[in-house]
Amino acid sequence: xxxxxxxxxxxxxxxxxxxxxxxxxxxxxxxxxxxxxxxxxxxxxxxxxxxxxxxxxxxxxxxxxxxxxxxxxxxxxxxxx
Length: 81
Hints:
The chain is mainly α. It has 3 helices and no strands. The chain has helices at residues 22-34, 45-65, 74-80. 0% of the residues are buried.
C-alpha cells in the first residue's frame, strides 16, 4: 500500500506600498476600492514616517554588515539617551 502526501497550499495576501502623487491619490484609491479582492487604505503621516525610518535603518544595517559603514557601540548609544 502506498502512502500519499497531500500538499497543502497556504495562500497569503501580497502587500504593496504605493507612492502616489497627492492630486491622483483619490482617483487611485477609488479604483482600488472598487476591486472586490483588494483592501486599500491610506497610511497616516506617522505610519508613513515609521516605514521610511525602518527602511533606512535596514539599509544602514546592511551597509554595516557589508563593511561599508561603521557601527556605533551599543553602550555609547544607551549612554547618549
